[in-house]
Amino acid sequence: MKRRLQSRLFSAFNPQNRREFPLKCKMQLAAGFAALIKYLLLIAFMSYLKHLWRPAMLLILASLAPALQGQTTVEALPPLPKDANQYVREAIKHQLDADATDHSHWRYHIHREDDKGSQDRDVIDTKDGQIARTLLINGQRLTAEQRAADEARMKKLVEDAGERAKRDKRAKEDEDKGVQMFKAIPDAFIFKYQGSENGQVRLSFFPNPHYNAPSRELQVFRSLSGTMWIDRAELRLARLDGSLFEDVTFGWGLLGRLNKGGTFSVTQSRVAEDHWEIVSLDVKMSGHAVIFKSINVKQLQRLSGFRRVNDNLTISEAYQLLEKGEGPVSAQNEHDETKALSQK
C-alpha cells in the first residue's frame, strides 16, 4: 500500500513502531490515552506534509525551478486571492489531489537525531510497505553484533506478514488523522500575507477564535501559531514553522501537558518532476503525560538522495536491493556538502 505525504514520516518514526526504528521518541503514547493524542497529531500534521521536502541543494533547485524551466514565471501566474485563507485552501486541495494520483515509490536516505544519538538509514518504499537498512549509528559503522540485529529485524519484517499488516493498519490510521488535520487548517487558522521570497509566498497564521474543533485531536490548533511558505508556481507547501504560544493541557493537566514554547519546522521540496517530499523535520517539545511522566522531545530528521523505484517492487525484492549495500552515506553529510556548495 502506497503511503502518501500525510503518513510517511509518521509511520517511519511513530513512537509505537519500535520494531521499525529503534530510536524512538521518549513519549510513548498508548493508543488508548486520548490525552496523548495532541502530540501525536502534531507529528501527524507534520508528517502529512512529509510528501513535501529534501536537502539544501534540492531546496535551492526547487525554488529556482520556474526560472530554470523558462516556462512559468511569477509574472505569468494569476494574481493571488485577496483572501489569504482562500489561497491556503487552494494549496491544500492541490496537495491532496496530487497525493491521490501519485502512486510512485521511492528510495532515499534518512538521518535522524534525538536525545539518544543519531542513525542513518537507507529506506525503500514498496507496495508491501517500507523497509530500511541501518547504515550508521552515531556516525559510526555498525559493529558485527549491531549488523546481525539489524539483519534479523529486516528479515522478520519480510517474512512476517502479520507484523506488516499491523504496521499498515497503524499507518492507515495515522494517514487518516493527518488528512483530517490537513483539511482543517484553512478553517482552524487565520492567514495573512507577509510578502514573498525566492518564488514562495510567505503567510503568517494564528488560531481562528471562531473555530470549534470537532475532535479533541484538533484542539491543539488553538494553541499554535507560525509561518507557512507556499511555492508560487507549483502551489505546494514548501515550509511550515510553528510554535505553541501557550500550554496545551488534557484533563486539567493531569493526563497530559505540552509546554508553551515548543516548536517544529518542516520543509518540503520538489525532488523530481511533479513529486514533492518532506526533506527536513525539526521538533522541540517538552511537557508531561499520564500523571507527570516527563516529556522532552528533541528530534531532527534530514531526508535526501531520492530515487524512484519500480512501483510494483515487493518488500522481499527491496530487501535484496538493500543487502547489496551502497556504503554508509549519511543524509546529514549530504545536506552539509550541498549547503557548502551553494555558498561557494
The helix-and-strand class reads alpha+beta
Calculate the mean pLDDT score and round it.
Answer: 75
* Global geometry: globular
Distance between the termini: 42 Å
Q: Please report the number of helical segments.
A: 8
| Strands, total number | 13
Uncertain parts: 1-74, 327-344
Largest sheet: 13 strands, antiparallel
Rg on CA atoms, Å = 20 Å
State the helicity in percent bands: 25-40%
| Strand-residue proportion | 25-35%
**Overall tally of structural domains:** 1
* Secondary-structure element series: HHHHEEEEHHEEEEEEEEEHH
What does this structure look like?
Helices cover 35% and strands 33% of the residues. Residues 1-74 and 327-344 have low confidence and may be disordered. Strands 1, 2, 3, 4, 5, 6, 7, 8, 9, 10, 11, 12 and 13 form a 13-stranded antiparallel sheet that branches. The protein contains 8 helices and 13 strands. α1 (5-13) crosses α2 (37-48), α1 (5-13) packs across α6 and α2 crosses α6 (161-188). 42% of the residues are buried. With 344 residues, it is α+β, with helices and mostly antiparallel strands. The protein is globular, with a radius of gyration of 20 Å. The chain has one domain.
Describe the structure concisely for a colleague.
With 344 residues, the chain is an alpha+beta fold.
Task: Itemize the secondary structure elements and their pairings.
Layout: H1 5-13, H2 37-48, H3 56-69, H4 84-101, E1 105-114, E2 117-126, E3 129-137, E4 140-141, H5 144-159, H6 161-188, E5 189-197, E6 200-207, E7 224-231, E8 236-244, E9 248-250, E10 256-258, E11 263-272, E12 275-289, E13 293-309, H7 315-324, H8 331-343
Antiparallel strand pairs: 1-2, 1-13, 2-3, 3-4, 5-6, 6-7, 7-8, 8-11, 9-10, 10-12, 11-12, 12-13
